[in-house]
Amino acid sequence: xxxxxxxxxxxxxxxxxxxxxxxxxxxxxxxxxxxxxxxxxxxxxxxxxxxxxxxxxxxxxxxxxxxxxxxxxxxxxxxxxxxxxxxxxxxxxxxxxxxxxxxxxxxxxxxxxxxxxxxxxxxxxxxxxxxxxxxxxxxxxxxxxxxxxxxxxxxxxxxxxxxxxxxxxxxxxxxxxxxxxxxxxxxxxxxxxxxxxxxxxxxxxxxxxxxxxxxxxxxxxxxxxxxxxxxxxxxxxxxxxxxxxxxxxxxxxxxxxxxxxxxxxxxxxxxxxxxxxxxxxxxxxxxxxxxxxxxxxxxxxxxxxxxxxxxxxxxxxxxxxxxxxxxxxxxxxxxxxxxxxxxxxxxxxxxxxxxxxxxxxxxxxxxxxxxxxxxxxxxxxxxxxxxxxxxxxxxxxxxxxxxxxxxxxxxxxxxxxxxxxxxxxxxxxxxxxxxxxxxxxxxxxxxxxxx
Length: 451
Known about the structure:
By secondary structure, the chain is α+β, with helices and mostly antiparallel strands.
């Protein structure tokens, strides 16, 4: 999603944090419906070759096209890593193209169908099943086997999420859970101990009461964005889901979702948050010392560091429900289907995936938690003290079901949340209506994709 905002704000809003949040029903749709609207492509899978890139590349010089959606502050960090790869592998030139995520999943299938797809593509784990079903990307079982990788080398949840129809289609690069950011200046101003950020709903509300007693609205909630990672984290904590494991039912109208939206609406109604806050109000209020807290992804670590006057910290997301769970995403490397099977490029692309996985500690500069266990266990990763706070939650992360097109239903979730938060409809009415419509979308996709 392209936003005409400062880089730091764009970084925040261009993430799946706005997944299904319903910014006028359009921005959220662009994120939640990535790559699920067309019928499967005609191209067949490329024949797998090589040993996963472990042996390196000694063939003729090749140029690889690498597409991703990193149009925010993480883009330059990825380009830096690519530059380091090319220095270590001088025979492989990698041309990086960043395309806004909302456009990425329209352009990639078209390019693959026309035989002009990139050799490498980075995408969210939530898009793997859809892109696999549409034959846009190919299985990479040979890479995993060639590198002797297994589930023990990654968090179990992200490893399992990289499969579709029992084939592995992606190599996870990172995990990015939702977490809590706290403003030290504001906390001290209202008499809170900044070394003890809230960990439960009761502690969170006690902190907001302390803020309110001092005339501070401690946590700014927006009807335009709360339905993303913020509300979804609470839904998961209460045992709910956005889509069930079968990919045939939404949880929009279930009690966990109703309770979550009711809670965040109560923060506005109770004066803990201003009314009609903009979609990026949590970040704007936080960086300007107007709010004590922000719930966001680890990509905000870098923007926070860039503001010298800002005194802050981060911690695991508070348990606003019952269980230790959180919204989370993952960037994964995939190999798009190629009509022209160039063996040298296939081998070089696999070398790229292997190298990036082994050197993913550098990706922590973008705030991301490396997916590779060996990298997270390294001494080098430990220096990213803020990112290690998000590492604590990797087992909490909830991923969508491994069914193609399930995120399409969230086009109904965003507008419903906005209507509920703005008081245009009762919360339960708005969400139950969205559930009926969302379930119809899932039923259509089940028929289309045959699951």
